[in-house]
Structure formats: C-alpha cells, structure tokens
Design goal:
109 residues; Alpha-Beta Plaits; 4-stranded mixed sheet
C-alpha cells in the first residue's frame, strides 16, 4: 500500500509530503496506481524545483520514498508559489487515494 502523509503548519499550509510504499495494484510495470502517484509526485517536484530554483526533495536511497519538504526562511513570494504547487499536487493525490482506497492510504498530520 502507498502511504501519503501530509503535514501542515499552524496556518494550514503544507510543509511536508511523505510518500512511501508500493500500491501492489498490479505487477511491476503494469501498476496504474503506482504510475499515477509517481507521475504526479515527480512531475510536481520537478516543476517546483525548476520554476523556483528551490530544492524540495533529496534523492532517495533506492527505497522509492519521496520526502518533499518546504524549506524555512524562503522569501514570502517564493514560499507562496511553492505552497500553491504543492497544494495542487495534494489535490491530485487525494483524487487517486479516493479512487483506490485499498491501495493508497491518506494520513493528515
């Protein structure tokens, strides 16, 4: 099962998105749930880093985990752009979780 953990600050802004696990919806290479989650997450991480120049994800150690963190101390306008892009990603991931609840677990912190 894929686990998607969303952490927010006291103002309700996303500060961290942690994605772990495997969907096991189908065989490796044919798993549409895994492909959807991976495409959304990596597409948005690439967009954030390209458009803002801010690194939000460190390369994983081969376990497939994605740990997106919005750094502290950013200029307010840059932080708002990143938060907007992350919120768009969260909406897409939520749609996948709602459509495939046996394969994607949603955790809000």
């Amino acid at each position: 099962m894929i686990r998607i953990r969303i952490e927010r600050n006291d103002h309700g802004d996303v500060k961290r998105v942690l994605v772990t696990g495997h969907a096991n919806f189908a065989e490796h290479g044919s798993d549409i749930v895994c492909a959807a989650v991976s495409g959304i997450v990596f597409g948005q991480v690439n967009a954030i880093e390209t458009l803002t120049g801010v690194r939000v994800h460190q390369p994983d150690d081969g376990d497939g985990k994605v740990d997106l963190r919005i750094p502290e101390g950013l200029a307010p306008e840059v932080e708002r752009k990143i938060i907007l892009l992350v919120e768009a990603m969260v909406i897409s991931l939520r749609d996948i979780a709602d459509s495939y609840p046996r394969y994607v677990r949603w955790i809000n912190k």
